[in-house]
Predict the 3D structure of the following.
Amino acid sequence: MTGEANRSGCRPSTSERVYGMLLFSYSPHFRREARGEMMEVFRDQHRYARAQDGISGVMRLWLRTGLDLLTSAVPERLAALRSAFRTSPPRHQPTRTGKGVMMETLLQDVRYAVRTMVRYPGFTAVVTLTLALGIGANTAIFTLINQVLLRPLPIADPDEVVALYTSDFSSGIYGSSSYPDYVDFREQSDAFADLAAFRQPAQLDLASVGIAEQINGALVTGNYFSVLGVTATLGRVFTPSDDVTPGAHPVAVLSYGLWQRRFGGERSIVGQTVNLNGVPYAVVGVAPEAFTGTSLGSTPDIWLPLKMVGQTNPAFQQFPVFEMRGGRWLGVVGRLAPGATIEQAQTEVTAIMQRLAAEYPQTNLGTLSQPDEPRPMTVLPASEAAVGGGLMARTVGRARLLMAIVGLVLLIACANVANLLLARAQRRRQEVAIRIAIGAARGRLIRQMLTESAILSLLGGSVGLALAYWIGQLLVPLGLPSAISRFVTVSELTMDGRIFGFTLAVSLLTGLFFGAIPALHASRPSLVPTLHNTDEGIAATGRRYGVRDVLVVLQVASSLILLIGAGLFVRSLQAAYGTELGFNADNVILTTLNVGRQGMSQEQGEQFYRQLLERTSTLPGVQATSLAAFYPVQSGGRRRGAAVEGYQPDDGEDMELNYNVVGPGFFRTLQMPLLTGRRFAERDDASAPRVVIVNETFVERYWPGENPLGKRINLPGPGAPEQWYEVIGVVPDGKYRSVREGPIPYMYLALPQAYQQAVTLAVRTAGDPTVILPSIRSEVRSLSATMPLVGVRTLSQHLGRALAQERTTATMIGTLGLLALLVAAVGIYGVMSYTVSQRTQEIGIRAALGAGTGDVLRLVVGHGMRLAVVGVVIGVGGGFALSRLVESFLFGVSATDPPTFVGVAALLAVVALLASYIPAHRATKVDPMLALRYE
Amino acid sequence: MVLSHAVVTSHELTRMPPVASVIALVLSEAERHGFEIMQAVQGRARGSAILGPGTLYRTLQEMRRMGIVERGDRRPVAELDGEDRQYYRLTPLGRRVAAGEVAVGSHHSDTPNGAPTP
């Protein structure tokens, strides 16, 4: 298939892949004969439809194809079954077997159903589309979940592979391990066939054939590939002999992607050298295409031996990292020994750690919360570790939330379709009554109606399967399920048998659900009135509330739950926007400038920065201007190992501290007040003593109750183990990496003392900051004609990006909720219109007896409002029950936020009022004489 | 690959789906592959018939079983040539069917199956 596609120069489209899967509806015999040709024909049709009418042509093609599948695959399967039955008994058997009769009946039902569907194409289209949206949304989310949570890692026997974590001192149990610990685990355990260690990611500058490029590398022990059971596509993978002496093994395994992208898939690459961070490495092999490492979303471009870590990152050369038991920097994966379980492995590594803690209490005993216990060890299945230690729960949580949302959407779609079917059943009740009168069994009628709904839902499911791909494409770039989207790119979303099965199951269940209610209901009309063609057949059953009322209640309740969800996310967003950021984000414009890429030396760069600041600060309307490595809020930010004077960290305590590098005007531009000391000044340049400004939390944590001014912090750099910075000022806490974070210790270094090749310029203006942009652009151009302005945005927009996830979630749930609200409103309107038409006589009589307009309005609106109120009560209850699902995604708002609940309930009540007012108003126009004469 | 021409009975011919006669008709004009057959049929039926790949190949299979059509040996120009593309043509029996000498689907057809347009 792939080969063929490559030959003809294009990949099969999604439609083709989906169609290929749908062909499984035919019998194997037929598939063998005709599959290839049918695929060809479909491909032709698809191309033709696309060329003729674009996407709408493709949609129509899918509708036609769905019908074609139904009308040909079902009879084909039945015929195949029949011929299978026929082979055993003699051909001229006079009586038919029970199975034969059933088959015949089923075939009749299918034919009947298809005829009905073709007779009412509008109805069929509306139902199909409604179901397709509901089922498609479910399939799309399931596809994402399948991709992230259910699909096995691309390694041999992934179930046997596990990941090991050593608890971090201060930040959780999913920490890295040290090399000596790794060696001990490997030597002392029996539960593992073998253990491998890796360090990832490593930023590498690849210089070879043409321009330099930053790529993502992984450093791995020599047995890494054999532990995972991965063999080379070309050349060889590493062996233990490739990873013995630090710095002595300049060899590399390329990823398939890098090999194709940078080296054109040349087989002669093996044996050539590539230059990484200035060190030449000999390429020994290429990893298989499917192997993307053991972490989802972080695919290494190249693998290097672990012992080369010092060559990729000079910081590792300062310390004997392979002997430091307290230096924890490695991920560990292992393959369980034959017969060993993950529990045994867990018990064993815990026991080993206990011994190590006794032997090396300095490094292996105690964490911040449990100072007297050995470092806890955690063993996770590799599939869970791939998502990220501890992230699994969050991902599963979000997946559950998403499934709940799309489940509700499907529920609403079902209720809507059931309502439509019921409405149609009213029209068909005479036909049903005749069939019952001439002796049709009720069971048979129900079966026939269920067949019809099953076929409708299968049709909806087929279209939904096709839609799922597009819905998925909409969801992923929205960054919607952030815990998931990190791992999935659109091109990676693929269909497989599991998704097909899921869609099939959902479709059939859906069909059963929305089909059962009308089928049961419509198969027992009161015969006599119906045959007399009066409305009493239904209306006179004596019940005040019918099935359609129940469905409306269901719709109201479901849309209420969705709207509450949307409301909560909106409130969460408001809360995030209203957070005390520690600075003023209004009227500031940002743009990023990279002098390094322009080939400027440090001296030229510094000159450029100085001139840029001088020129921009004198532009009209500019209040302040500054340069910084980045501006808050920036996810990730920067961290650096630090030693704080006078503070003795606990062993293994996380002393990597967050910092930013900022120019002199930074605090003024962001309007950050100064609590004590002074701000950076022009005199704090590279030749002056190193200075640092810290925040309040920094002082409270490391120098509680002391005067921080004049205290020192050591920030070692490459080749410089001691670089002391003196504290000159303290600023209030702010938000640095995320608006959701709590207060953290933070440092600011002076830009002239920590040169940056790329900086972001911030300009504060009196009014709208975008007005100044052309002037900034021309000033930059006058300094460097080729310098591009990258990422121009206002500081508010910049903050908005940090909140993009909240916003998109709120948008999506909100959109679905509004859609659901619309559907519910149409439902209420439909039911009320129907009720009014059913009760025309009653209303007419009431009017004749003197009931005023107000009484009639009250009568009808009262009915609608009662339904709405019941729906709202159920919905609010459901909202409370489901609040647990959203709790962890909300910020600054409770999952049972009363204003949201009350507001949304009120909104729904108003909509219900309007939806029932229109038919009620019509009811007041009933002419009593006309209504009575009708009798 | 072509099955024996002798297996078809007139009873079976009457059980052919109506679309078979249209397919026979368009094949009497020229040897065609699947998509061409579909387009020709659609053109004739003025869009009133839904002839998808499933219905088409079920019918073609049945027609081959009866010896009305067979696979041809024509190949399209190279750039259009898919590995699985097959051409179909009428057998001698098929020509007679298409010419109206043998009725197809005649149990409810009150118009004669049109003579082939040359």
